[in-house]
Fold these 2 entries.
Entry 1:
Amino acid sequence: MAWRDVPLGRWLRAVGIAAAPLALAFIVLAGLGLLAPGTAALTWFGLTVISATAIHWLLGDLLRTKSQLEKLARGGEIEVQARRTRIGRELTQSLQRLARESGQRTASLVSDHDGLERALDALPGPVLLLNEGHKVVRANRASKNLLGGELEGRDLAAVLRNPDVVAALEAAARSGSGQDVAFTLQAPVRRHFSARIEPLSQHAADGTAIVLALVDMTAVRLADQMRADFVANASHEIRTPLATLSGYIETLSGPARDDAEARRRFLAIMARHAERMTRLVEDLLSLSRIEMNEHTAPTERVELAALLATVVDNLEWRARERPATIERDIEAGLPPLMGDAGDLTQLFQNLVDNAIKYGREGGRVRIRAWRETSGPDESAGEASKDADIMVSIADEGDGIARQHLPRLTERFYRIDTARSRELGGTGLGLAIVKHIASRHRAALTIDSEVGKGSIFTLRFAHIPTESSDGPAGL
Ligand code: ADP
């Protein structure tokens, strides 16, 4: 720092403060005759020059330290500069230590902040941090995915557009305790949420006063709804034949007691209804058993050609009744499938039974099984040994209109309920198929052309086993 960097006024004031008492002392000494006036003036002048220089150095060092401190406070880097005084050098050392420590502290705060930000983003549920005025201070990735990108700075009322959430925020602010509120977002698709509002006892440095965490309850609500619908549907399905049976029992024990012809007819109808109830209960039991096992992969090695032959044998009488012809086209040398023979028999039986039921009278039901390579080397011609196994069941029935296809595997979903009942259907066949397929990691696709027929295809993914390369028929 040059001479001119020390403000003149300040320096002169400091020199004046030091020189004035000195001058007084020399005047007294000269007045008492202890010093000659000339000597006193000269000594005073000399001492004043020395102290003026020392004061200049000290002031310079102090002012430099001050400007470095201000720079540090603004977040800048400090420069190492030479100091004239010892205290100046000590101040520089302290300043450097302060700069080092504050740098380390800032770095650790930044990394803590980054870590928290990343942790907030890693949370699967949407979390919003709000200030006292209910404006979004921070939003994690899940909330941006749900509510749109630019959330910071926006009012929560505009973001969620839900008066219940705003009311709960106000209640939380009033009471200082957490609140839970359920609400529904209508767009882009209807979704149900539960919001947990937690006010902070002390506001965070960034102004966060409230934490709002959202939990998507749509799947839970849907599952509850499905369970309620299922119980209602199952009760309805059982109530109808039960009511019919009670009606006939009353008739037979009352007005038709002595009518042999009516008794014969009514008993046949009652037997049909009892059979339907039995089938329904059997299907319900199968469904619940399959659902329970759905997450344990089957471990049996199933020979598909033999299994499909059994299915055809079991349903031959149904085909004769309809009438319909069952054809089989099974590729030779299919490797065994990892599966559950009982489940797979039921799966194919349900599909072949449907093909007979809903197929054309006198039509053909075609069962095909072959290997198919999925992925880029599909065009390789020869199906390789690690190909998927495909099984399809095709009929020549009326087909299924496109709008029904996505719902066909729902429990009790039927295109024509009266026709399904008349043909002895329970409405559970395809739901059972779907669950068995899912347990076997198989994909079900349904292709149908109205007026021509339907094809139900299953793709069993290739699962490598120690001996799946060996000869078929194990
Ligand atoms: P259901 O016991 O009624 O046959 P499913 O679950 O097996 O119950 O089938 C559900 C509905 O899907 C049936 O009621 C029928 O409307 C339709 N469906 C199933 N398979 C076929 C098919 N091969 N051709 C036409 N419609 C079918």
Note: Residues 350, 354-355, 358, 395, 397, 400, 408, 413-416, 420, 425-431, 454 surround adenosine-5'-diphosphate (CB under 6 Å).
Entry 2:
Amino acid sequence: MRVYKTKDYEGMSKKAAFLMAAQINAKPDSVLGLATGSTPVGVYRQLIQWYREDLLDFSRITTINLDEYRGLAAENDQSYRYFMNHNLFDHVNIRKECTYLPDGTEPDSKKACREYDAIIKGVGGIDLQILGLGRNGHIGFNEPGDYFEKTTHCVDLTESTIEANKRFFQKEEDVPRQAYTMGIQTIMGAGTILLLVSGEEKAEILRQVICGPVTPRVPASILQMHPRAVVIADEAALSRTENLGE
Ligand code: GLP
């Protein structure tokens, strides 16, 4: 795993945005795997700025998001579809019909997951995937478990994740208890993976991700096995991971 250390969140965002822009310019019809959460917001902001400066063109880009809360419709301001529209898609020239997330409103979870896997297969897989890191080591909504889930599946969110994500909701009871998420095998199938991590509160879990054993107890640790996985993390996030980071 290549590890880039940046001074702060802004540096992390800029570095990741440079790599994404390079991907878009090198292959204008790229399939980008996108993430939600607070971590990638700065990357999206930078990409929007470059689009406005005429440096980026999203007209042939396809996007596949990692996950969506089960039960939330696109209009719900806590849905990941709403987040993506608001933080990226509404501000660039991407064709909305080429932006995909699992269908949170599909009550039949098997159907929702099967259909999402068919979409990913149909677009030919993911060229570049960006990931945030959950406080318990999750990627997408692949929570710690006994084995690595392969394809899109429905997950029961852990208490730790509900606790971490309740800040976006009015009250804790409003946080959905389930989500549809891309599986580990699909994530690992991406050509390049960028794992973005910022902040001291993720320092210990990031140390385990990079230096610990590969285990489904720390889902992101599987990235050690990916030939083109890049960690872009700020000094605070790497504060427990000595001597690492270019
Ligand atoms: C959520 C998302 C993840 C994200 C994680 C971390 O649970 N499903 O994809 O990486 O939160 O969020 P944040 O970036 O806000 O710390």
Note: The mean pLDDT is 96.
